[in-house]
Amino acid sequence: MIAFVMFLVVVGSIVFHLLSPWWWTPIASNWGGIDSILQLTFALTGFVFAAVIGFMIYCIYKFKKVPGRRGDYEPESKKTELTLTAVTTVGIIALLAPGLVVWDEYVTPPDNVMPIEVMGQQWYWSFRLPGEDGILGTSDARNINDENPFGMNPNDPNGQDDILIQGDDLHLLIDQPVKVLLRSIDVLHNFYVPQFRGKMDMVPGMITYYWFTPEKSGEYEILCAELCGVGHHAMRGFVSVDDQANYNEWLSEQITFKESIESASLNGNNYAEIK
Amino acid sequence: MSDAIIPEREVEEQELYHAKSWWTEKVFSQDAKIIGIQYFCTATAIALIGLVLSWFMRMQIGFPGLSIISEGFYYQAITMHGMIMVVYFLTALFLGGFGNYLIPLMVGARDMVFPYLNMISYWTFLLACLVLVASFFTPGGPTGAGWTLYPPQAILGGTPGQESGIILMLVSLSIFIVGFTMGGLNYIVTILQARTRGMTLMRMPLSIWGIFTATVLAMFAFPALLVSAIMMILDKTLLTSFFMPALVEMGEQLSYGGGSPILFQHLFWFFGHPEVYIVALPAFGIVSDVLSVHSRKNIFGYRMMVWAIVAIGALSFIVWAHHMYVSGMHPYFGFFFATTTLIIAVPTAIKVYNWVLTMWRGNITLTVPMLFCISFIITFLNGGLTGLFLGNVIVDVPLSDTYFVVAHFHMVMGIAPVQVVFAAIYHWFPLMTGRMYNETLGRLHFWFTFLGSYLIYFPMHYLGLIGVPRRYYEMGQTEALYTQSAADLNVFITLTALVTGFAQIFFFINIFWSRKYGAVAEKNPWQANSLEWRTPSMPPSHGNFGKELPVVYRWPYDFNVPGAKDDFVPQDVSNSEVELAEGYEGTEIKAEQT
Lengths: 275, 594
Fold this sequence. Notes:
The complex is a heterodimer.
Chain A: H1 2-19, H2 32-62, H3 78-106, E1 114-121, E2 124-129, E3 163-166, E4 170-173, E5 178-184, E6 189-192, E7 201-202, E8 208-212, E9 218-224, E10 236-242, H4 244-252, E11 255-256, H5 257-266, H6 271-274
Parallel strand pairs in A: 1-5, 4-10
Antiparallel strand pairs in A: 1-2, 2-3, 3-11, 5-8, 6-7, 6-9, 9-10
Helix pairs in contact in A: 1-2, 2-3
Chain B: H1 22-27, H2 32-62, H3 71-107, H4 115-134, H5 165-193, H6 206-237, E1 248-249, E2 252-253, H7 261-295, H8 302-315, H9 333-359, H10 368-391, H11 393-399, H12 403-433, H13 439-466, H14 484-502, H15 504-517
């Protein structure tokens, strides 16, 4: 009975894996390598799972109690143990080595990468693009107030042309590698777009990053993947991957840090007072 | 025929403190067996709270439209469920429960070496549980910070229970650690100093090796949790900034500055990863013993098994940051921790092979404890293999913080150890009560528990593969990700979880009915070799053994010794005392192997 049910468990698990309608979302970034290693890991671990349980089924079936029969007396077998250890080690290396190679790529952005900033706070996303100079200005949580929600350093010339996007979607140019600089101003968050495969926590007090190249145009949902309080599940946003024309059109509608400060002073606020 | 040399008695036996009243015998008892059972009962009671909390959250995940619970309560439920199950249930049950019950009996001691301290340890644990439960009744309720209690979120306003729940949680953990330290020192000293004559370290049952190594790990790991709990209490109450950088909460500048949230994560997981093995190693040990007895075969590769336990224990201290691959720590840590993490898979795999090889060419009796051992191997293997996904840093990137992680750790450190708990309780039930459990109820319980939990957690991995994040009160409208069929899968998981949870009633009926009305157990009903079955009375009385402590001549796995009449030779039987089989008269019994 148990042997038969175990057989069903193994076969059922494999069939479930092969026929399951629940599979990863179609990839929209350059991280196909991650998917390949996932596939490799599935194949290898699936084989080990079936082999070990299969052997156990054989044992239960073959060595089920027969009154009067005795089991073997074999305290240990160095040869068996060493062989199994060696085989396991080889399998582990086969998984680890390609994994580390892709991890190396993941943490090493290419030279032509464009820096962008994603800022998280309870419970929404804001974005900042570097503007024409291609450099993001410095920022500090201590600078944050109603007129300066990003906490930009007002004296940093690099920051004046930074494009600020609040309460709106992020747009990315297709095939342009981006280095996402991640910043939080209150608690931990995590910028996660399942179709891009990447993920990294945003930690107040420091700037973290990862990079990817969006390779498929479309609109993708941003999810927060690190518990950030009661609104965690509702912290969503959208990122849209555009071709050059659409991207340019969207970009021209955005405002820079300088413009936002100027419009704030037009509204009757003296910038010196804010500071 | 030569017997192994047994060392002389070095010190005179000391008389135990014998209870003088009902209170000191049954309630404020210093007998490790009673303290063990007190740990069992308290840990099980609090686990039932954890179980009910899991039903609430499963109802919310499966049927978000009903809005049975609020967002705040959902986060409180996942937090309390996690912390209760990991620390107050599994740790307390394996070390406090099985540790107390089994250590003196299995090493041939009359009691723990510090019985009074042992008693205090239990009452301190009970206090920790009461403080934890009290947080349900305070303003704002228990903390909803997730069981990992990551700051800054844990002590800020956007998290439920930040009024007082988080403080009670941290205080309760601190009390737990104090109580556990008292018990843990006791286990270590008893195992090192109070073994009976002839019980060398390499003749100890693997249960004791598992409990011993786990306790040593706990002694090193829990202090890290204690200091982080104290620091976080200070951050919360005195506005220090150990873990708190400059930050803005809901548009308001807070006075914190200069602290590091990642520091907390390092401290937490420096405790948290060994904690996995604090639960797993006793389970490894116990399952080895139960499996060997019911397979009627020695555990395969005993020495390798011992060294695997020790190696896993040592390695468990240098893998902690694999919980933090995407935490924002320096990316180069990923190379180191992925390598150490996958190395730990080797000794773990050896253990699995040796369990299966123990069954090979045995004479397997499919008793209820044996069935639970088998289901442990399946669930542990499954959970261990998915560990190879999450341990390999780059594969962890898409999977971390999704349901894949939830499924993995429930399979490997929830379901698998719980299968061992059941195997152990059924196995030692005759010893603890003097009666046999009911076979039919036991089998019903097994099938519901094993199949139910496999059906809950196996499909759950695939939700994570889609990318469904964990700790979401509801998924809402996310067509690309969370399709109707994924929502249906969650309904299935919820229903299975409810059925599996309720099926535990078979276990409780069985235990409560059988301890009074079960068939009276014969002595050593499983024909096992280890010393706990060699006591003069069953259940063993205070002091465990008779006038003389047993003397140990062999390892506990002498099954099917060639030449012996029975298929088992208990540890306290010398070679010259072994009854010989027909045709073997006058021949020599093979000396024990270790």
